[in-house]
Amino acid sequence: MPTSHQLTAIVTGATSGIGAETARVLAKRGVRVVIPARNLRKAEKVKESIQRESPEAEIIILEIDLSSFASIQRCCSEFLSLGLPLHILINNAGKYSQKLEFSEDKIELTFATNYLGHFLLTEMLLGKMVETASQSCIQGRIVNVSSVIHNWVDRKHFCFSKLLSPKSYNGTRAYAQSKLANILHAKELARQLKARKANVTINAVHPGIVKTGIIRDYRGFITDSLYFMASKLLKSTSQGAATTCYVALSPQTAGLSGKYFADCNESRCSALANEEAEARKLWKQTRALIHRRFLVPVGQNVKGSSTN
C-alpha cells in the first residue's frame, strides 16, 4: 500500500513468533502498530526491540485476553477512545491446548481464543474500519491467520455446539477446527462487505509450518530426535510472516477478498472451507451466541446495513 506512513494496524498475538515479526515489518514500513496483549511485559519487550531497529516507530500496547468476551470489549472500547483510524486488522493470535480447558465464558479454550475471540474483535472494530476506509479512500484489510491443518476437519466433526463444549477432546482436532472456522469467517464476512460495497477486504492465510510456541507444544507427542529432524524443514518466523504482510500491504492483493493465501500466492483451501452455506451457518450461530451474551449489538457495524 503506497501510503504506509498514514496507516494504523492492530496485530493480535504479537508478543512472540509470527505476530512479533509481523509487527516489526509493519513498523519498519512506517505503520502505526497496536499490540493487544495478555502479557504486557512481553509486549513491552517487543515494543523496545522494534524501536531499537526503527526509532520512529509508533507502538501502542493494549491489554486483552482473547478468550474472554469481557476483556475483548474493554480492549476495543479503549482503542476506540483513542480516536485513531484503523486500516489493518491482523487476527494472528493462536492457542493450542493438549488437554481440555475452558475459558471464563465456559467455552473450549482453543475455539474461544482462535475463532470466537477474533470474531468478536472484528465485529467490534469493523465499523471503525469501514469509516476509516471511507474517509481516507484507503482500502481496509483484515487478515485471518489460519493453517493448512484446516484440511483435516471433516463435516461430521464440525458441529457448533460440540465445538463450544466437546464431550471428547483431541487438541490437534480442536486446533484444526478453529482454523477452519477462521477461513469460513473470512469467506462470509467478505461476502457481506461486498454486498454493502464497503471498501474493506478480508482474507485468510496459511503462514506455513513455523518454529513457534505452538509447534513446541507438540513435543510431548514425538521424540526429541524426530522433532530435531522435522525442525530443519520448518519455516523461520520471517518466512512465516511474509504471507501475512503480503496480504496486508501489497498492491497485488488490493480488491481481493474471501481468498486463502499460502507462500504469498492465492491457494486452495478444503472443500468444506469453500462452502458458502457452511460459512453463513457458522456466522449466524456465532452471532446468535454473542447476542445471547448481550455483549455487542451485532448487525449495526455499517450504518443502514445489516449482517444478514
Mean pLDDT: 88
Strands, total number = 8
Strands of the widest sheet, in order across it, are 3-2-1-4-5-6-7-8
Low-confidence stretches: 212-217, 219-223, 225-232, 299-308
Helices, by number, come to: 10
- Radius of gyration (CA) equals 18 Å
Kindly estimate the percentage of residues that lie in beta strands according to DSSP.
5-15%
Largest sheet: 8 strands, mixed
Give the termini separation: 31 Å
Q: Which H/E pattern describes the elements?
A: EHEHEHEHEHHEHHHEEH
Envelope shape: globular
Range of helix content: 40-55%
Protein structure class: alpha/beta
Keywords: Oxidoreductase
Pfam family, one: adh_short
Family: Belongs to the short-chain dehydrogenases/reductases (SDR) family.
Protein name: Short-chain dehydrogenase TIC 32, chloroplastic isoform X2
Gist of the model:
With 308 residues, this protein is α/β, with parallel strands linked by helices. It has helices spanning 17-28, 40-53, 69-81, 109-136, 160-164, 171-196, 213-217, 224-231, 237-249, 276-292, and strands spanning 8-11, 32-37, 59-63, 88-91, 140-145, 200-206, 260-262, 265-266.
